[in-house]
Design goal:
It is built from six helices and no strands. The two termini are 27 Å apart. By secondary structure, the chain is mainly alpha-helical. Helix 2 runs antiparallel to helix 3 and helix 2 packs antiparallel against helix 5.
Length: 134
């Protein structure tokens, strides 16, 4: 567990989060990373841009790994292709030092994140999370 209380809280929140909330967190994190890459591009900070692009690519990779093709094969395939496309666009943006691919990926991520914000998560029943003292 991290020594920083804030980091410890974030880690604990992620470890106990519902799967939908984890997906939302990955989308928000990827959006933040793309925003950081855009800021670094504008500031002529290649090291910062590289780190931000890598972070966004890693989050997209996690989203790809989280897909469950057994439940919706066509949707999983489409999302996998979209995640791959966004990763390639991010790498192109970094190599070409170009704003346009970053803006495109930010727009795609924002649309997906907005859709995931609309997903209802059923409340967890109290009895399933309560622990009984012996």
């Amino acid at each position: 567990m991290p020594s920083n209380p804030y980091a410890a809280h974030i880690e604990a929140s992620l470890l106990t989060a519902e799967p939908v909330e984890l997906v939302r967190t990955l989308y928000r994190g990827a959006l933040d990373a793309v925003s950081e890459a855009r800021a670094c591009l504008a500031a002529s900070d290649p090291a910062g841009r590289s780190a931000a692009v890598s972070k966004a690519v890693n989050m997209l990779r996690e989203l790809a790994f989280s897909l469950n093709p057994a439940s919706e094969p066509a949707m999983a395939r489409n999302l996998l292709e979209l995640y791959d496309y966004m990763q390639r666009r991010l790498l192109a943006a970094h190599i070409e030092r170009s704003e346009a691919p970053l803006a495109e990926v930010a727009s795609l991520l924002a649309t997906l994140a907005e859709a995931w914000e609309q997903v209802d998560v059923p409340p967890v029943m109290e009895s399933s999370v309560m622990q009984h003292a012996g």
